[in-house]
């Protein structure tokens, strides 16, 4: 199967795998798809090491990197740490302490400082453009911006390196803005997707974005974890698909075992778009954490982004660790970003097998459609 | 194009058109699709007249009827009118009065009684099974239940008449329950659909329902108003599609002019799943009505079904009439049930033309998919 985009990026099959796990990225690329490493959690040094590992594994086959960069790179953000912390109201700190106590998770003495440090680092020129510089020194084929239009520095650096720039969009307006910012490839992401997501479904969004940004190519994201769903996305006019959730239950995935078990057991009704982790609506597994924040009697309501991230991420790291120790309260609270396709994920498979299964079911779906029209 | 379902129902193209307008039903059937008349608003006598008119128009081509029946036909419901009215709290009556005054719509002196009468009629054996009896006396090919599993009386009467029974489902569990109740054809409806709808998107829901109820055939609903979207639905494993919103802006549609103008101007972000009209989440155009009920400071919150229907429908009838007179407050309040595809609806076309456009774009999409795999 060859789309123009496959030719351009040198991939056999236009199946893009977003993952924070280098093993998934390499496995998908080696199986004929296109792995994309989510780099947000890494320091530049660590990213360099991860990409060198991938380079060794994939032997010149194409892969990419996804970065979370602010629209403008701001060197002063690190200095804003104390300022940010000052803006977290006491009742939000107290609510986290209350939740940790109610569910029996040991609360840290100073929960917010390391998270604020991490956050500040990511938002600086050395954090964000440092990651971009490192990524572009490797033989990547694609660099993606997960949050808003990429800054001009990123677009021009990628152009000079001959690297395709992709960006996510949840509305037609977002997509148009991305193209104006110089993006080469739009990922139109429906509301059923995991993580930060809008309100419009993939079925409705994709054809509108395809028509709005033509001839810029569009990948479909949200609700795609099988060959039938990939065929549906291609029928809508996409040139390929961008999948995230389906890799979380692969053998290679970095997903914590307790979370993986929750994902395997969940139905498609068990996700929620909640502001409780980042301050913006992000689809994730429903858990005591989302229930307490979203509709608990004592909830102060989520703060905006980035303050809610400061409040949530330190607590979630501790909750995750306690869940891995099997603590029942932590197991109730723990969750992860995942799309509605979680209801389809009921066994652990190697990432390579997931690719082959999607390719095979895709071929069957296209053949069935062709037969119906004979 | 022929699916097994086309053979069974004698239709050329598995495009099902749900509409409250007999003209749309006849036009779609005559264009090679399958019109389905929503009968909930009709008395048995009126339904008989509408179906006789359709019979004359379609010359033996296949069409169907959609009824809203309670799971059990209850002859005592008419007597419950007074009882129901007693359960509407004063603050809900007062809030409607307040809204009508705030937006300058003349409030009726006794707003609830006629609505309660109408509601009681629909819920009785003479109301619901009266409609079914009338429908089955006409040469219909399909009878659909829009709300929960159809009662056994409906299933057995339809079977005796050789009429296929369809029913809507928003989850895999609903679909299984429908099949257990004797339903022959499942309409798997995604969250992007207009009217009462669940949380799971069409892209995610349809393959799950197809696998769960096989070999029972499945229609896809929600997010489908073009040939590409129909091709996507068929790729997901559906045997056909069930469309509602796309007919609301056709020439023939009964849609009130002021509402039609709002639909044509709306984007896919302008709908909301709101309990403010029926007490259950139903997707509709965002308007001052939904905003005031869902997040207005003075809102008492929607009641459950059917009480919220009693509260809302009398008011909405008056609001609609005032909107047609061009009253600005009423134009802010007025809305209608519609899916996210409303963002694609930007011109008024004959229903026949909509069918032809969908068929033509469908063929192009399938051909494009086949070419990509060559």
TrEMBL record, chains A, B:
Transmembrane segments: none annotated. SUPFAM superfamilies: Inosine monophosphate dehydrogenase (IMPDH). Signal peptide: none annotated. The keyword Oxidoreductase applies. InterPro entries: Aldolase_TIM, NMO. The keyword Oxidoreductase applies. Keywords: Flavoprotein, FMN, Monooxygenase, Oxidoreductase. GO terms for molecular function: nitronate monooxygenase activity. It comes from the Bacteria. This is Nitronate monooxygenase. It comes from Nonomuraea cypriaca.
């Amino acid at each position: 199967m060859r789309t123009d985009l496959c030719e351009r990026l040198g991939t056999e099959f236009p199946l893009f795998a977003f993952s924070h796990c280098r093993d998934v990225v390499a496995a998908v690329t080696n199986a004929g798809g296109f792995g994309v490493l989510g780099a947000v959690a890494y320091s530049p040094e660590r990213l360099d090491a991860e990409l060198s590992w991938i380079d060794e594994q994939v032997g010149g086959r194409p892969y990419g990197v996804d970065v979370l960069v602010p629209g403008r790179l701001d060197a002063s953000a690190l200095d804003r740490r104390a300022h940010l912390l000052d803006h977290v109201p006491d009742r939000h700190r107290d609510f986290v302490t209350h939740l940790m106590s109610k569910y029996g998770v040991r609360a840290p003495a100073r929960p917010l400082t390391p998270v604020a440090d991490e956050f500040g680092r990511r938002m600086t020129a050395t954090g964000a453009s440092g990651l971009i510089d490192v990524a572009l020194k490797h033989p990547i084929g694609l660099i993606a911006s997960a949050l808003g239009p990429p800054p001009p520095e990123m677009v021009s650096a990628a152009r000079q390196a001959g690297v395709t720039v992709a960006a996510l969009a949840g509305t037609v307006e977002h997509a148009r803005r991305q193209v104006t910012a110089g993006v080469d490839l739009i990922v139109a992401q429906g509301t059923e997707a995991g993580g930060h997501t809008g309100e419009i479904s993939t079925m409705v969004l994709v054809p509108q974005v395809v028509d709005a940004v033509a001839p810029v190519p569009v990948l479909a994201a949200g609700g795609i974890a099988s060959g039938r769903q990939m065929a549906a996305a291609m029928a809508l006019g996409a040139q390929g698909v961008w999948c995230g959730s389906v890799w979380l239950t692969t053998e290679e995935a970095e997903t914590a075992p307790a979370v993986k078990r929750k994902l395997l057991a969940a139905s498609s009704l068990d996700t929620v778009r909640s502001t409780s982790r980042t301050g913006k609506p992000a689809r994730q597994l429903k858990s005591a954490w989302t229930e307490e924040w979203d509709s608990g009697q004592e909830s102060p309501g989520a703060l905006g982004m980035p303050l809610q991230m400061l409040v949530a991420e330190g607590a979630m790291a501790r909750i995750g660790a306690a869940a891995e120790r099997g603590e029942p309260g932590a197991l109730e609270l723990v969750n992860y970003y995942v799309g509605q396709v979680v209801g389809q994920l009921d066994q652990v498979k190697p990432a390579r097998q997931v690719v082959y299964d999607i390719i095979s079911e895709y071929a069957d779906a296209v053949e069935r459609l062709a037969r119906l029209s004979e």
